[in-house]
Amino acid sequence: MNIMHILFGFSVFLCISLRAEEAANIVKTNMATSKKISWYLVSGPAGMTESKNPKLSELEVQKTPLFTSDDIVYYNRSHSFVLTDEAYRKIRDLFVPVRGTPFVVRVGDRRAYFGAFWTDVSSVPWSGITIMKPWQKENTELKILPSDSKLDLRDDSELLDILKESKKLVAEK
Known about the structure:
This protein has two domains: 1-34; 36-170, no CATH class. The chain is 28% helix and 24% strand. The chain has three helices and nine strands; from the N terminus they run H-E-E-E-E-H-E-E-E-E-H-E. It has helices spanning 3-34, 85-92, 157-165; strands at 37-41, 67-68, 72-76, 80-83, 101-107, 110-118, 129-132, 142-145, 169-170. Strands 2-1-5-6-7-8-4-3-9 form a nine-stranded mixed sheet. Strand 5 and strand 6 form a beta hairpin. The radius of gyration is 22 Å and the shape is elongated. The relative contact order is 0.17.
């Protein structure tokens, strides 16, 4: 066997190894992005909040999320959380009518639950999952309030696991 055969064999081995590593990095990147929690505003009619349990698969959501788990500074098991200043401003500046602004929480590509941003000046009853629109200029802790349902969808195990893995799930602050 001459040196050319050895070099050729080594070159083929090296190319295959690099392609395998490149493929592994692509898979890791895709897994990391699929393990994201995202809050999307519902694009449909403003009256969506009149239905406490709409079919999640039928709700049309905006193309980009309002905020994601990347924007969460920390999240308590009691479902209160702090966002980055930029993400907080998006919520603070969000138009929230008296019937609320509906959102869908997605865990990766799976739709986990439906809720609404609500305003404390509203007298319209709502018994679904709620995030109250903040009025404070300074970034403050927000809370995801439960629905009247016996099943608390905020306790989604995959959602909590993602927050735990990213070291954002904390004990009470």
